[in-house]
Write a structure and sequence with these properties.
It is built from 9 helices and 10 strands. With 289 residues, it is of the alpha/beta class.
Length: 289
């Protein structure tokens, strides 16, 4: 099977958490390198599998790599090929090739805290194609029964955070049970490689205090300004499940529309006060309205 190595490469990227782009030749007119249905996979770290024709055709896939990964949206490009485009390949005048590009992106979501909000958010995020990691220091809350399919990091927050390096361009939801852990987790999230989303639960007063402390430690003001706090979109959330939906909706908005999306749709402080209380609730039983 001519594209077998490409499919193996996709599995490899999924396993490694490395983004890439899958290119497929969807149409050919006239004389053109490559073949209809030919595939090529390019990873951000430079690994490649297959080809869509070599020369300027493969080169155009490389040129589109970062844009497609950043947008996480498929796109198509068309090249009209002549000998002047790539004389070394001897392309024949009049060739035309259409190539479909698909992002291969494993988007990581790190949830700091394993209380009610995390318990409701994790399965929602998994259905939205996020790979979820949940972190906490309480084994009775953080276990495979409560978080099936998630990566679980259990330990004292200070030690856990010092030993954990998050994936690049990850999303972070800080929903722990206390100010101290929120502070530690927020600063850890901000220090990771190009975080795409950092959301913090809590009242406006608590958030102001935590952000101010981070500023005093030298964190970039522009980065602090980008924190989603209070966390989630303003959809009138009251119950734990509704609050989780509001956070999931904000994750989608940032993922699909970029980091400046939904800035005018943030939760009012009163609702997030309730969210913070629910996050601190001691019972591992999920709250129902």
């Amino acid at each position: 099977m001519r594209n077998a190595e490409v499919y193996e490469g996709i599995a490899e990227l999924r396993r490694d958490g490395v983004p890439g782009v899958l290119a497929t030749v969807t149409a050919i007119r006239g004389s053109s390198p490559g073949a209809l249905g030919a595939k090529m996979l390019i990873a951000r770290d430079g690994r490649t599998w297959g080809t869509v024709g070599g020369g300027c055709v493969d080169g155009q896939v490389y040129a589109e790599l970062e844009r497609v990964i950043a947008s996480e949206k498929p796109t198509t490009f068309v090249l009209d090929l002549t000998e002047d485009d790539d004389p070394e390949q001897g392309l024949i005048c009049g060739g035309r090739v259409e190539v479909f590009l698909e992002p291969i992106v494993t988007t990581k979501l790190y949830i700091c805290g394993s209380g009610h909000i995390a318990h409701a958010l994790a399965p929602l995020a998994q259905k939205l194609d996020f790979e979820v990691t949940v972190m906490d220091d309480r084994a009775q809350f953080l276990n495979a029964e409560r978080y099936p399919g998630c990566e679980l990091l259990l330990g004292e927050f200070e030690e856990l955070l010092s030993q954990t390096k998050a994936a690049a361009h990850a999303f972070f939801a800080v929903v722990t049970r206390g100010h101290r852990y929120d502070q530690e987790c927020l600063e850890w999230a901000l220090a990771q490689d190009s975080p795409r989303y950092v959301g913090l639960v809590g009242s406006r007063k608590k958030i102001h205090t935590i952000v101010q402390r981070a500023a005093e430690k030298g964190f970039d003001p522009a980065q602090l300004e980008g924190i989603r706090s209070p966390i989630g979109l303003d959809i009138g959330s009251v119950t734990v499940d509704e609050i989780a939906v509001s956070i999931a909706a904000e994750l989608i908005a940032v993922r699909r529309r970029g980091p400046t999306s939904s800035r005018d749709l943030r939760n009012p402080g009163e609702l997030d006060e309730r969210a913070q209380k629910l996050a601190r609730a001691p019972s591992p039983t999920r709250v129902k309205s």
